[in-house]
Amino acid sequence: MGQIRAFPPDFVWGAATASFQIEGGRKERGEAIWDAFCRWPGKVVNGDTGDVADDHYHLYRDDVGLMARLGLGAYRFSISWPRVLPEGKGQVNAKGLDFYDMLVDALLEAGITPFVTLYHWDLPSALQRLGGWAARDTIYRFVDYVGVVADRLGDRVQHWITHNEPWVVAFLGNLEGVHAPGWEDAGLALQIAHHVLVSHGLALPVLREKSGEQAKLGITLNLSPAHPATDSPEDRAAAQRQDGYLNRWFLDPVFRGSYPADMAEWYGYLMPRIAPGDMEIIARPIDFLGVNFYTRSVIRHAEDAPFLKVAAVSPEGEYTAMDWEVYPAALTELLLRLTRDYAPAALYITENGCAYEDGVSSDGHVHDPKRVEYFRQHFVASQEAIAQGAPLKGYFAWSLMDNFEWGFGYSRRFGITYVDYATQERIVKDSGLYYASVIKANAVEA
Ligand code: IFM
Predict the structure, then answer these.
(1) Is 351 a catalytic residue?
(2) Is 0.90 topped by the overall pTM?
(3) What is the pLDDT of residues 114-162, one digit of tens each?
(4) Ligand 1 center to residue 303 CA distance, Å?
(5) What is the residue extent of each domain of the chain?
(6) How far is residue 86's CA from residue 134's CA, in Å, rounded to a whole number?
(7) How far is the CA of 269 from the centre of ligand 1 (A)?
């Protein structure tokens, strides 16, 4: 420690959230597939729901005040599709659109740039009844929905993210069954991944038309280097498959217009139906790639493991409450690899953070030294990537505040702000105070 590493003067410092995880306001919107999934016994810890969450729908003004106090330059949030279109299509919920309109205005008044994600997993249940993302028609319903949102916000929002983590949408929701809608079918998951990617490409011209040529458009992928557990050819091939499954399956089509050949061969008859022109649509140019990074994976060949024949191993080290290894060097590695292999115009870390067991101390503060250290190490890793040539333009901490962590309900806290769910009191954690100091200095101590 001791060396001060500065960030570029225009570096964007932000925090991120997602609609279902923080908004609540359930009565004021249509049903999302996650509402239904929460009712499915055993799927969400404690049977927690998104009905109230952080009640941000009603407390958004206070939350923008909180962001301003932290000194955030940007805020990444997502739009709830069923809040805007309760049936997924057709009739617009005017109050729902008004909410985002007011949120954007409040942010701009506070000098905070909105980064808007259009899909962070809360598909309207009405569309799931028609097949959800497995149905090609959902692509076109998404594009219509994007048009409605951009019509209203496009005069003020200049940064758009079409999708958050299509891998999670496709594979956790439809192969592993641990996310909504809860299916377990590899072929279906691959078809869904394809439809989500096509919907990304089709949304781009709509956003350009409504937000202007200068608008910055991108997609956010959850990416993670896959390291082989040993040097054996089997383990190295397994790590290569894991990389293909998680990273290249999304990066290659978005940047190169094709699925990786090794994985297409591995998937064989599970490959999705690809309509003529789809790959060109997916590969339409974007202005930035959003990167969600939390950890690396260490992979060994596992003959009995279904689908990919891989298994994760857990080396010695520091682990978060999600059981994710703290391994910041993989962030530098990832950003440099993206720069080298895909030459993105710009990169943003659209999520990075960690869950630990937090509590309010007798002094009224939330002391979270492990999170402070996690952030510090990842800031250093980010700065190192910039120093080595990565076009990294900004960093968003996950998350602005504790929230609904999907299948883990409220049992995992990722916030830089503590939320008392009984009272909705927000307490900025030590990590939030630390983050504010880094933002102010635009530099980190390495
Ligand atoms: O909470 C999630 C977020 O919704 C998407 N990226 C990972 C986070 C932590 O699991």
Answers:
(1) yes
(2) yes
(3) 999 999 999 999 999 999 999 999 999 999 999 999 999 999 999 999 9
(4) 30
(5) 4-445
(6) 20
(7) 31
